[in-house]
Structure formats: structure tokens, C-alpha cells
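DM from R.C. (forwarded with permission)

"hey, sorry to bug you on a friday — could you get me a structure for this? deadline for the figure draft is monday and I only need the backbone to look sensible"
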Amino acid sequence: MFDLFNNTVNIAHNYLKTIVKPGGVAVDATVGNGNDTLFLAGLVGIHGRVYGFDIQHEAIIKTSEALAEKGLLDITMLFELGHENMGRVITEPVDAVVFNLGYLPGGDHSIVTSPQTTLKAVAEGLSLLKAGGIMCIIIYTGHPGGLEEQECLESYLEGLNKKNYCVCKIDFLNRNKAPFLIVIEKAC
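My reply, with the result:
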């Protein structure tokens, strides 16, 4: 239907393609069904690395199987761990960090991301970003706590130093309750 603005994931992937190159390092902070993990692994290629985090065992298993099927498991490190712990695991600068907030599509909708852990994870991710790197955060507000998570995130991101970060919000004004995208670029 639309090429550029089909959905927020498509828009995020278009931004990521401009930054994440073969040999790069990327983080999928919310592995879920593995779509972003697979996408990032395809961008970094056989000489790159992707770190993935999810608290649900089902997400890690499903993503591992999909990566193995595509021959990308060796370049990916998956952790059954909350995204707020990424700074304990990752010891190298990264080109990009991706978040898809909310719940696991097709999974237990009572297990959702929360403002407290998401804020900590975003701060951790920003500290790991290389100069010129980006963070893409897709925010869904239709689940319990989703609006609170949005408000906390926006309040935090509005306070980032504009000399160090450019924060952009992309929203669909004519799509009721559609997820929206926040893209953060770290200064070069």
C-alpha cells in the first residue's frame, strides 16, 4: 500500500539500514518473535554481531531456531534476560539498539515491558551507542501500562542534551492507536 510509511517497523528498518553495515554490532533489546534480530543479523553479516534480550524463554527458543535456519546463529548472542541488564553483558560499542515495546505477539499478553526497566534499558543502550549510532524505539500503548511507559520515556528523552542526541518522534496522525516510533541519533 505504502512504500516509505507502511508501518513503524518498516520505517525503523529503513533508518537502521543507513547505519548498520557489514561487520557492525547491533542490539535487539526485545527479541520477541525474532524479526528484528533476524533483520539486524542480515545487516551485520558474518563478520558482525547481534545481541538479543528477552525475558521469555519461548522468545529465545523461537528466535534461535529462526536464526539457525538462516545460518545466522553464530553471529548472534541471545540472552534470556531483561533488557535493563544489557550493560552487564555488552562490553563493546554498538551501532544500533532496537526496542519493540509492549508484549510478545502471539504470547502471554500479561507479560509486558514496564516503564522502570525500559527507562534503565534505554539509558544503558544510549551509553553503549557509538558516535553516529541510532536507537529505534517502537512504542505500543494499547496494553495496560503502555501509556505510562510512553509518558515516562518521552519525559526522559526530552531531557537528553540536544548537543549529544537528536530525538525524533514519528507518529501516524490518521491511524487510531497505531504504534509510533522514536529514533535517537547520537552525535558524531
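R.C.: lifesaver. The chain has six helices and seven strands.
me: no worries. The CA atoms of residues 46 and 75 lie 6 Å apart.
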